[in-house]
Amino acid sequence: MSRRPSMLDQISRSHSGxxxxxxxxxxxxxxxxxxxxxxxLCRRAELGFDxxxxxxxxxxxDFNVVFVGAGNIMFGSDEGPWNHSFRFEHKLGPRxxxxxxxxxxxxxxxxVLQKKCDTFVKSAYENTRVFRTLDDFVKNMSRKDxxxxxxxxxxxxxxxxxxxxxxxxxxxxxxxPGVALFIEKPIATGPSGEIEEAFKLAKYIxxxxxxxxxxxxLRYLKAVQMMKQxxxxxxxxxxxxxxxxxxxxEAIAKPDWWDKARSAGPIVxxxxxxxxxxxxFGGDVDISTVSAHSLEWYExxxxxxxxxxxxxxxxxxxxxxxxxAATWKYESGAVGSFTHLVALQGHDYSCELEVYADGYxxxxxxPYVQPVLYIxxxxxxLEETHRFxxxxxxxxxxxxxxxxxxxxxxxxxxxxxxxxxxxxxxSYQLTWAIREASERSRNIKKETVPAA
Length: 452
Ligand SMILES: NC(=O)c1ccc[n+]([C@@H]2O[C@H](COP(=O)([O-])OP(=O)(O)OC[C@H]3O[C@@H](n4cnc5c(N)ncnc54)[C@H](O)[C@@H]3O)[C@@H](O)[C@H]2O)c1
Hints:
Elements: H1 7-15, H2 38-44, H3 49-55, E1 63-68, H4 72-75, H5 84-92, E2 96-102, H6 106-117, H7 122-125, E3 129-131, H8 134-140, E4 149-152, H9 168-175, E5 180-183, H10 195-208, E6 212-214, H11 222-233, E7 238-248, H12 260-263, H13 266-282, E8 291-295, E9 323-329, E10 335-344, E11 350-357, E12 360-365, E13 372-376, E14 383-387, H14 393-406, H15 421-440
Parallel strand pairs: 1-2, 1-4, 2-3, 4-5, 5-6, 7-10
Antiparallel strand pairs: 7-11, 8-9, 9-10, 11-12, 12-13, 13-14
Domain Gfo/Idh/MocA-like oxidoreductase N-terminal: 63-216
Region (Disordered): 1-28
Domain Oxidoreductase putative C-terminal: 219-360
């Protein structure tokens, strides 16, 4: 049976003018997690997770998954709502079998597995084996471990290139041709000179025919899909995107995040979500038009009083800007702008994206915590307000991935993967262009940067 075309196929088809599917999902088809919760299913049926498996049949066959990285994105943390293992458990229920957890930090990996085995989801993890590397897994796996998907949540400096040790995607596809991939954002954080390698990798992945999704989960928000629906149904052309991302810096205690040498800086590491969302509405960016300015750590206005890390331990040239403001032209002619701020204290970020088209303002507010969409339409000066209770884009992106992997019948109704590797490369490229434009514009003499 032939595999349904990947989103990349569809994107390239739509670029060539013969596209059959849109890169969006009817928002009413984004099913909340509790509607599928196996925990509630088990409770209702008065069965344990294992006994539902034992009851067998109706829930289908095991679904083998390999997790790469045993960190926060995979198993959750206090810093945010991300936690892929939790979404896989809810999507697949007792079918989920995590056959391997690959992480050089073996103790951390073992500890998170032990925690899982102490809960009702034990059957997904009781046979999980920990490996330091992919090669170790390949050497030691048995036939019954054959994975249907790899979920890659290792740090981006170890992936997104074609170089040995930093090419996990290529290694996975070499050993498991056609296996599905879920890759976290950003797709890399190496020097900007390596961006071309990322595009080569995107071609390699698309040529392989593998289902591949990149973790720009904001695309899966119901509010975002409603914005897309309004634009499509009214045949609108986006004129401008205006994005603002103000981070609550007091809550960021990870030293790497404050060090450009380790995280590539706040635009590449964090602002990437909003650069990607801007591109989702505005389309491809003419990278040569990107311009930007920054407020730097050594300028008077850039002094922060509530930093949780010791910035003096970071070399001056690697310290991050407090504000970065960029503008660019999309290839459509539309204009994009993005301001990233390291300015707020407390815990919650303040983030907004406005999309303008003839007669319309679509304003998305607070997409991370409690998304609200304000819409102004032709014929009225008033704003409509739409709220989206219990929307979980992390669940929707995993749910759509699994549906695509299992959709061997090529059901035209199956929701589309919304971010391919190639698309994610373009967002990565935009973030680097913004960082470099802001660094070029600093116009400071090196000696004005205070020494450590
Ligand atoms: N979509 C989101 O909102 C979101 C949220 C959090 C993190 N992320 C992304 O997820 C990725 C991981 O972030 P995190 O917060 O989980 O980091 P983390 O530091 O908590 O965990 C990373 C884990 O990967 C392991 N690791 C290191 N090298 C490895 C290798 N070569 N192979 C396998 N594992 C390796 C580390 O030992 C660690 O356990 C980053 O790209 C980050 O940007 C995305």
